[in-house]
Amino acid sequence: MGEELNFFYPSTEWIMDRPFVCLCGAPQCVRLVAGAKYLSVDALSRHFINKHISDIMVTTLAATQLVPVLSA
Question: CA–CA separation, 60 vs 72, rounded Å?
Answer without folding.
Answer: 29
